[in-house]
Automatic annotation (TrEMBL):
The keyword Cell membrane applies. GO terms for cellular component: plasma membrane. It is a multi-pass membrane protein. This is Chromate transporter. One of its GO terms (molecular function) is chromate transmembrane transporter activity. Belongs to the chromate ion transporter (CHR) (TC 2.A.51) family. Keywords: Cell membrane, Membrane, Transmembrane, Transmembrane helix. It comes from Sulfobacillus benefaciens.
């Protein structure tokens, strides 16, 4: 059990250190680590990410879920603390110098370039998760509904009501 906790700690420190762009930027790294160590299968990993997306703090929930599945409460604590420690330390250190650095020529360009990379990461995660979902008519319907809901700003309660209705109809058939 201790070796599993130490493995979670080390690997999620790595995810937290290299995961640019917040939660969506961390998902590809989390997936690589989780699947390569056979901590979860693809389906369970996708469920962890989905669970995180419907609750506050998607990275915290997903990371805690993965850690718990691997090593119980100790694993949940280790993974969650590990994934957040590097960003907190980095932000604490950089915030001391940001006021001086923001006026240095080129720093704003670097920040904008980083932002562009984050947009690419988010698009990549969207495609990755989309490919793992769309293997059936229900999955395709889900993707279409998500796109329409996002595009037309459909309220969450309407999405939940529609999904429940469609699910009930599909379960009967």
């Amino acid at each position: 059990m201790l070796s599993a906790i130490m493995s979670l700690l080390g690997h999620f420190l790595w995810v937290g250190t290299l995961g640019f762009g917040g939660g969506f930027g961390m998902i590809p790294l989390m997936k690589t680590v989780t699947l390569s160590h056979h901590w979860l299968g693809v389906s369970a990993f996708n469920e962890a990410i989905a669970l995180g997306q419907i609750t506050p703090g998607p990275v915290a929930i997903s990371t805690t879920f993965i850690g718990y599945r691997v090593a119980g409460v100790g694993g949940a604590l280790a993974a969650t603390i590990a994934v957040f420690t590097p960003p907190v330390v980095i932000v604490a250190v950089l915030s001391r110098w940001y006021g001086k650095l923001k006026s240095v020529p080129g720093v704003q360009n670097v920040l904008y370039a980083t932002l562009s990379g984050v947009v690419g990461l988010i698009l990549g995660v969207t495609i990755m998760l989309g490919r793992s979902i769309v293997h059936s008519a229900e999955g395709g319907l889900f993707v279409v509904a998500a796109i329409l809901a996002g595009r037309f700003k459909v309220p969450y309660w309407a999405i939940i009501l529609a999904a429940g209705t469609v699910g009930a109809v599909l379960m009967r058939g």
